[in-house]
Amino acid sequence: MLDRARHLDQLRRDGERLLAVAGGALDAAVPTCPGWTVADLVAHTARVHHAIAAQVRERATGPVPRDEVPAAPGPDAVVDFGAAALDTVVAALADVDPAEPLWTWGPTPTAAFYIRRAAHETTIHRVDAEAAVDAVTPVDADVAVDLVDELYDTVVPHARRREPLRLPAATLHLHRTDGEGEWLLAADGDRIVMTHEHAKGDAAARGSASDLATALWGRPGRDRLEIFGDETVFDAWAALAP
C-alpha cells in the first residue's frame, strides 16, 4: 500500500485530469460506465469525494446518509462542483492521521482506508473520462500495483457481501513486465486468496502494471496483455470488479 503523501498526490493529479477532460466533453458517453455521460461521471465522483470528506471530518460511526451528501448540479455547473469536492476531500484527508480509528466498509478500520479508496476511485474514473474521448493515458505503475491489490483485498470482497458473486474455480497468475510484481489469484471456498509470488496458475497474464490493473477493473488494457491458457479464466476474475 502506498503512503498518504503518494495517495494524495495521486488523488489531486488524477482528479484534476478528470475535470480537465470533462470540461470539453460533458455530453460524451462513457463506454466503461454504460448509460453515463461524462457529466454523470463527474457528478458521481464529486459526490464520492464529498461523502468521504464528511465521513472523515465527522468521524462518523456508520456511513454518511446519502441525503446528507451535496446533490450535484446540472451539467453547466458540474465541473465547478467537482473541483470544489476535490479540494474538500484532499483537505479532509490531509488533516487526519492515517492511523485514526474510523468506521469503514472495508477490512481496515482507520483513515488510511479512505485515503487509499478516494485516490483509487478517482484514478479509475479519470480513466473512464479519458476513455470517453479516446485518450486514455497510463496509470502510474506503483499506483497500478496497489489498484490490483485493492480490487481483490477490499473491493471485490465488499461487493460479494452485497450480492452473490461466484468466484472462479481456476487460478490466475499475473506477471508485471515493467518492474517487480506478481500475483496468484485463487479461491478457497468463498474467500479470495491473493499471494504475491511466482507460481503457475491455470491461466496467466503478462503486461504492464497499468494494463493489468485497468483490464482487471474492466477498463481499457486487456488487448495489450499476453494471456496464456484459457482466456476465460482472466475474464472471470476481471468480471468480479464492480
How would you characterize the overall build of this protein?
The protein is α+β, with helices and mostly antiparallel strands and 242 residues long. The chain has two domains: 4-132, Up-down Bundle (Four Helix Bundle (Hemerythrin (Met), subunit A)), CATH 1.20.120; 141-238, Nonspecific Lipid-transfer Protein, Chain A. Helix content is 50%, strand content 11%. It is built from seven helices and five strands. Strands 3-2-1-4-5 form a five-stranded mixed β-sheet. Strand 2 and strand 3 (191-195) form a beta hairpin. Helix 1 (4-22) packs parallel to helix 4 (111-132), helix 2 runs parallel beside helix 3 (75-94) and helix 5 packs parallel to helix 6 (209-216). The two termini are 21 Å apart. 41% of the residues are buried.
> Which term fits the overall shape?
globular
Range of strand content? 5-15%
Query: Could you say what the CATH architecture of the largest domain is?
Result: Up-down Bundle
Count of folded domains: 2
First-to-last CA distance: 21 Å
Structural class: alpha+beta
Number of helices: 7
- The biggest beta sheet, please? 5 strands, mixed
Runs in which pLDDT lies below 50 for 5 or more consecutive residues are none
Name given to the CATH homologous superfamily of the largest domain: dinb family like domain
